[in-house]
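Problem 3 from the worked examples.
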Amino acid sequence: MAEKRHIITLLTDYGTKDHFASSLKGAILSVNTNVDIVDITHDIAPQDVFGAALVLRNAYKTFPRFTIHIAIVDPTVGSERRPIIVMTDNYNFIGPDNGIFSYIYHEEEVNRVIRIDAPHYYRMPVSATFHGRDIFAPIAGWITKGVDPRKMGEEITDYVRFAIPQPQVTSGLIRGHVIHIDHFGNCVTNISTNELTNEIAARNKVLLVNNHQIARFCRFYAECPDGEACALFGSAGLLEIAVPKSSAAQLLGIVRGMEVALHYAV
């Protein structure tokens, strides 16, 4: 019977111009060649831990159960920040303990978080500036070889997590924030159908952002006239501001962190 192939994903701010991303793959394959390695992205903005956390949140559930997700945006590599494994019923996550797994802690049932302390599984010598290649990647490889993550260090409970920004709902008003701007310039908010319910969506409403009023709500991008700003729920299940065939961020002067206010009839 053929050995089961495992999936390991990579999400980093390494870019693709240098050797960094390919070195992760080489370090994994040096431990186990019987794996499928998938790039989520290497184009996270440098040192943008929050942006990485959100992209990971939007991608990880699309992979088969038991996929190992390596997420590395690590501006304090080499310091006292801890390398960790986050174990859930469905996936394992490997990376630095700097908040990059905050959405995982919020959305998944976490069984335990392990502080990695197992030098015999590392790639030697360990570079103080490249733990991705020398610690995280080989640790993932050894897990696919059947090594129990619980043997790679002690459990911790004081792992770093940042507060997930939550929309505020009052009568006639939903306040949220732009939490991501995607490759197309669509502005993703933290408003979901938990706040903008079908009942509220059926009422008269207007979305305000950066002194712009958006009154057109669509089901898909092509439903909105070219050049006109509209709001719709995107594939992440979050309300987006979009301008078809253009960048809403550029046209409306929107940046991440900006407040949005959705006023609706009561």
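Problem 4, a separate protein:
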Amino acid sequence: MISEFVTLIVGFITSILSMPLVMKFMKKKGIVGIDMHKKNKPAIPEMGGVAVIIGIAASVVVASVLTSEKTRLLLSFLASTLIAGIVGAADDLKPLSARIKPFLTLFSGMPILMLCTYDPRGPIFPIIGRTRLTIVYPLLIIVALAVTSNAVNMLDPFNGTMSGSCTVITITLLISSLILGRNDGVLLSLCMLGPLLVLYLFNRYPAKVFSGDVGSLSIGAALGAISILSHLEMVAVIAFAPQIMNAFYGLSTIGRLYERRETARPVVLLNDGRLMATSDPKAPLTLARVILAHGPLYEYEVARIIIILSIISGILAIFTAYLIKVTV
């Protein structure tokens, strides 16, 4: 466990040292986003996810040195994260269409297939046991990472929601890996946890930095990769419930793939600083809009509810891991 602990510390320190530099660089270059849920509409440095990727890369390098037998596994994890991050960075600098971006994220699953770091027999279900999806499973891996990366990207409406909920998912995968004795899952989750904690510290309300698509897409792909490489697919499905619900709500109401900039905003800012669900029928139905349907709330209150939902999903996911342990 010493090597795993070292990777956690290295990732955290690398990210917390690089984040201020990334923020300063983005602000200098004018790469900023307007915080639309604040009355004074502050300009916040974008692409803070770059510091997360730097932290993950540092963790993976150290982990590869300390556990050389895991090098191929770690390389496939890092490559998947980087590919999604490159797609996100391209979208941050020059917005991609709502169809091109999900298509490009399909390639983030390729390193796992090319390096053969997955179990070809398929996922493990509670009670049922391991499935036999040898032919179909590689295709599911490609789709899975595209789904997780874009679902995480879609649930990033408020300060701290994406970084906080993904930190919860990472901890869920870590605990589930410990329960099931999946050492690979423990190592990969700790490579991810340090940089994510740093992002949350800077991105929580009131946000000092936005992750950008470079952050949300890479983090979503990394979480999907951990789920595949550690055989925690069913655990991840439960842990991702808020992201899946949010994506389903939006896609079902709009009826197609869409970008936030293409539609009416699902929430509106009131004069007292609270947020209210819009009555505009052209706006997508989102998890935030459903939460606000019960009445106006402050941004940090909505963010807290979303993170609480993630914690509930995480608890159910950990229970799923326990069921797999005792029934398979």
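Solution to problem 4. The first helix runs from residue 2 to 28. The chain is about 65% helix and 5% strand.
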